[in-house]
Amino acid sequence: MMLQTDIAVIGAGPAGANAALAAARQGFSVMLLDEQPLPGGQVWRAKSTAILDAPATPEGDAGDRLRQSVKRSSVTYAGDARVWQIEPVEGAWQLHMLKGGRTAPLRARALVIATGAREFVQPVPGWTTPGVLGLAGATALFKQELALPGKRIIVSGTGPLVFYVAAEIRRLGGEVAAVVTPNSQGDWLRVLPAMLPRPDLLMRGARWIADLMASGVPIHWRHAVTRVEGGSRVRGVGFRKLAPDWSPIGTSQGLEGDSLCLGNGLIPAVEAAQLAGVALAYHPELGGWVPRHDEDGATDVPGVFICGDSAGIRGAAAAEIHGRLAGLCAAQHLGADTRKERKQLRPIHARAARFGTTMTALSIPRAGLAQLTTEETVICRCESLTRSAIAAEIAGGARSSNAVKSGLRAGMGACGGKFCQTTVARMIAAADGRAEADVPPPTPRPPLRPVPVSVLAGDFEYSDLPIPKPAPL
Amino acid sequence: MRLVPDHSGRIRRSALVEFTFDDAPVKGHAGESLAVALIRAGHLHLRDAPEDGAPRGAFCCMGLCQECVIGIDGLAVESCREIVAPGLVVTSFRGRA
Ligand SMILES: Cc1cc2nc3c(=O)[nH]c(=O)nc-3n(C[C@H](O)[C@H](O)[C@H](O)COP(=O)(O)OP(=O)(O)OC[C@H]3O[C@@H](n4cnc5c(N)ncnc54)[C@H](O)[C@@H]3O)c2cc1C
Ligand code: FES
């Protein structure tokens, strides 16, 4: 028996879940897959079962609404399901997913990819020290576990996320040692007009910053953490003032803390789209390389649609609408007429995307930040490769991400290059004075997620899978 | 003066259960991620990096970086995606590089 569905959606964040709901309303059978237990994605990640009761938050409420909508719909949700391979088979799309320690195939007539984003962290000496967490990653800990990585936490990074993280640490009872952000107050003042259409978010952000100021938490504007001290666990950091291009200037100052949240914006997670054969285009304002797509999320590959942050970092509000557009597009591909509804959604999406890309612009690192990565800094965490080792490979003739990858194994480690490839690509571009647009990411190979060898050999129990709900008539 | 209220006193968690980490007893709330229970117990160093043997611990918290990998029943699994259960026998990948 092979699991079959009209439309398979990978990723159940605001984009994927709304794509699934929109397509199901058109009468198609839809299977929604996510490696998290419940829908919600990164922004609305569900609480773990260890949390019996907790005060409400805007993220929790929005996530609960989405989870209710999915539950009440005809969409079949498969949680804890990691998609690790995507291939065309007999005119359909065959996905392979890892669930309950086994792998199973699923065949779909159309595919919606909504795999979201991951974060970019500019490597600094000591960033591999236990107790250093990604800035976005830390929010996963807050949302899912309502837990903190330490007691006295240093928060460092770009865009609005630093202030959200600092506020959550304080809400969950922790101490924020300081906020260190490459953005200046002027950067924020300049985007205020673009934020006016979202007074709710503007007020929330203003409150986070006012709370830090009123509580005497230092905010170091136009500064960056340049090293982590402690060796086997975080004891503190060094930080420096930045020039307007974000290259470090001035003397190093010190801060004590037992944990550091560090991040510099998000990067679209494009590997699933690449596996499905979708070509990439370089859009720095959307976070870098994004799968080529039109306004509604249709790609150049027939039957493959993409939405949300995996199509470019436009934020959660835009992701919801983009998901609906892509779901309706997939329905159109299978014969429904969704043109009218999509026409109505487009301006709404464009408005939400304008706000989202303004926040993206604040988060994207400027060129000088790359100087934080010193010669001896580990860039590839999986293979412990330093900047000087990678620079030597590039000097020796490796001129593409694929070449560095095969020469040094940078990007061939357990994480599949997810946390080094952007840094490596920028080094390759800088070495030749080429544009970043000339250095595409390496070709992804399955598996998209680590798959234990024992699993590939084993048989799948179909009782491990949810029974598909019948398609609405 | 604070404008962001402290909610820590209003969070109710499931019962504490015991598991072991490299033979040391650790308490965690049933259902929470192993990574969180280990962090709370002060076990941040979960494995040694290849080549330089440097200590590593949970980093991405979303199942991508593989820095939080630990051993359960002879399988390497991500502690940020594995769940605390009573009697679990968890081993680190320290000192094996
Ligand atoms: C760690 C993190 C935290 C963030 N926190 C915030 C925040 O607090 N506030 C905010 O405004 N924005 C936040 N963002 C940005 C946020 O991702 C977007 O604004 C919004 O969530 C985008 O929605 P989406 O549906 O496109 O993607 P996401 O919400 O990221 O959803 C993508 C989903 O796809 C799933 N997935 C990916 N690959 C696979 C696979 N191979 N198999 C199965 N499932 C897969 C993931 O588990 C995830 O649930 C965060 C981003 C990250 C990476
Ligand atoms: S912390 Fe990155 S995989 Fe668990």
TrEMBL record, chain A:
<dbReference type="Pfam" id="PF04324">
    <property type="entry name" value="Fer2_BFD"/>
</dbReference>
<dbReference type="InterPro" id="IPR023753">
    <property type="entry name" value="FAD/NAD-binding_dom"/>
</dbReference>
<dbReference type="InterPro" id="IPR017224">
    <property type="entry name" value="Opine_Oxase_asu/HCN_bsu"/>
</dbReference>
<feature type="domain" description="BFD-like [2Fe-2S]-binding">
    <location>
        <begin position="378"/>
        <end position="429"/>
    </location>
</feature>
<dbReference type="InterPro" id="IPR036188">
    <property type="entry name" value="FAD/NAD-bd_sf"/>
</dbReference>
<dbReference type="InterPro" id="IPR007419">
    <property type="entry name" value="BFD-like_2Fe2S-bd_dom"/>
</dbReference>
<keyword id="KW-0560">Oxidoreductase</keyword>
<dbReference type="InterPro" id="IPR041854">
    <property type="entry name" value="BFD-like_2Fe2S-bd_dom_sf"/>
</dbReference>
<protein>
    <submittedName>
        <fullName>FAD-dependent oxidoreductase</fullName>
    </submittedName>
</protein>
<feature type="domain" description="FAD/NAD(P)-binding">
    <location>
        <begin position="6"/>
        <end position="320"/>
    </location>
</feature>
<dbReference type="InterPro" id="IPR051691">
    <property type="entry name" value="Metab_Enz_Cyan_OpOx_G3PDH"/>
</dbReference>
<dbReference type="Pfam" id="PF07992">
    <property type="entry name" value="Pyr_redox_2"/>
</dbReference>
Automatic annotation (TrEMBL), chain B:
<dbReference type="InterPro" id="IPR036010">
    <property type="entry name" value="2Fe-2S_ferredoxin-like_sf"/>
</dbReference>
<protein>
    <submittedName>
        <fullName>(2Fe-2S)-binding protein</fullName>
    </submittedName>
</protein>
<keyword id="KW-0560">Oxidoreductase</keyword>
<dbReference type="Pfam" id="PF13510">
    <property type="entry name" value="Fer2_4"/>
</dbReference>
<dbReference type="InterPro" id="IPR042204">
    <property type="entry name" value="2Fe-2S-bd_N"/>
</dbReference>
